[in-house]
Amino acid sequence: MKIASSLSFDDVLLLPQYSSIVSRSEVDISNSLSEECRFDIPVISSPMDTITEEKMATAMSSLGGLGVVHRYNTIDEQVNIMRKIKDKNPSSPTAAAIGISGDYLERAAELVNNGGVSILCLDVAHGHHVLMREALHKIKRSFGEEIHIMAGNVATRIAFEDLANWGADSIRVGIGGGSICSTRIQTGHGVPTFQSVSDCYYANTDRDVKLIADGGIKTSGDIVKALAAGADFVMVGSLLAGTTETPGTVYHGNNPSMRPYKKYRGMASAEAQRSWRGRTSSLEGVSVTVPFVGGVDRVINELVVGIRSGLSYSGSRDILELQSNAEFITQTSAGLMESRTHIKYRD
Q1: pLDDT tens for each residue of 162-177
Q2: How many other β-carbons are positioned within 10 Å of the β-carbon of residue 286?
Q3: What is the pTM of this model?
Q4: For 13-335, CATH number?
Q5: Which is the catalytic residue, given 37, 121, 181, 200?
Q6: How crowded is the C-beta side of 219, counted as CA atoms within 13 Å?
Q7: For 194-230, b where at least 16 C-beta lie within 10 A, e where not — what string?
Q8: Is 181 one of the annotated active-site residues of the chain?
Q9: Cβ distance 193 to 218 under 8 Å?
């Protein structure tokens, strides 16, 4: 038995450093998945059925990021979604999720050949798995270097190294940290996402494999911490939930004072599994309602302001400079309370 300590986003802070940055406009937060796939912002929307379909992927592209269309549909339905996205942004990279069993090879071929997809996301909860190894080998043999392969999720350095050696071009890092994920409660397994990112950043691989922090990200400050710890991009779900562009209906309660809301659910929740499997198996997620918050452009723009400001506090003009300059300190629970807004109002 091994016991090791680990840190979450709330356990750490970045040490402020001397900055010569006069304006946040001097800060460049663009990054690349590959030479062909460069983005103005390091934010990717999650392949969940209540987060990313046509509208979200199109909006993320127009805002400089990327949306990964979920796989919880038929092959024809997913291909049609990708065609619509490509018609609106013909020169932009597009991404779609597939599994690692069943019809995944057929789905991959249809998405690439008929959907114009340039990024395939091998999307499973536990990516350090024999089926992932086989799937990566088969996808790589089928498409070579023509397609960027995003894979995950993983939580450890050895898993990151294995997926890189198996052929992944980018790897999603984080298990059990999502806001509607109960993997750690149900299975007892997981690693705080900040720790996973920090560990995987030092993975020993000869390939230039990009690291995508996925899970546990609640604020723009968490995004800055993830980037500083070694992530090239972050993948988010809850931060975008409830926006106009997410799939689903805007509900209005019977009470006039009740705010409109939308549904947001984990793909391992009972509701999601009944929808796309017709049954439930392992339940490692929940389904909730979240307030309707309007257009995703406002959410992304607020995040971008926070990210740029965060880099400036470390005196960094881009993500690579942030990773070179970053100095972390740990904080106590009292420090975390002080970090949050804590004014008390009195009559």
Answers
A1: 999 999 999 999 998 8
A2: 17
A3: 0.93
A4: 3.20.20.70
A5: 181
A6: 10
A7: bbbbbbbbebebeeebbbbbbbbbeebbbbbbbbbbb
A8: yes
A9: no
